[in-house]
Fold:
Amino acid sequence: MGAQTWGGSCVLADLIAGDPESFGLSVAQLNAHSSEVFRILELGAGTGLVSLTIGNVLQQLKFQNTRRIEIVATDYYPRVLDNLSNNIRSNFPEGGPSSDVSIVAHPLDWSTFASEGKRDGLFNEPFDLVLGADIVYEPEHAPWIRSCLLHLLRRPSATEMPLSHLIVTKRSTHSFEANIIEKVFAMDCDPLVPCLRVVERDILTYGGDTREEVEYVYYKIGWFYPAQGRK
Structure:
């Protein structure tokens, strides 16, 4: 895992490059953001294509502001993290596309994160945008990811709705993947406590002509407030 770039990562990177605004990454959106630092987390980053694409998008936008952007690309496996760090250095020798934007590789174990008493400094503050592509391939992965998002996805404000964007490749051999995401993110909520729900679901088709068509399920996951019945 992580030694090659999977199809879902290519799709998510393509979506970001084609429409940064849908991910809150336009200059106007970033300039208007309320916090001093806009934080982006990639789960199961592998080769880092998604994080590197964001870096390139911001470089093309020539984003410069007093507000900083932090991109944290995470994975579990040490060899994958070594390769990820090398890819970041190869693309951004200075550690990011500008002095305002940083990209770092960092380990993250989904299975233990929620139960850890003391967390690494990078995870002490929540993230405004969380991304993941083809990261659910065992039944336990979706509950682990949900546990991480409960701690790591920033709560919404009157003007901002932080989201997690997940891409899942539809495979006949792993049909549980999409089903378990929808099940885990549709769990009953305490009426007084906000919970995470799938707020949007799309089927994307890539390929055709010279290649076999492949379908991907694209989820946007955000906070839901049962008492108010609102997202």
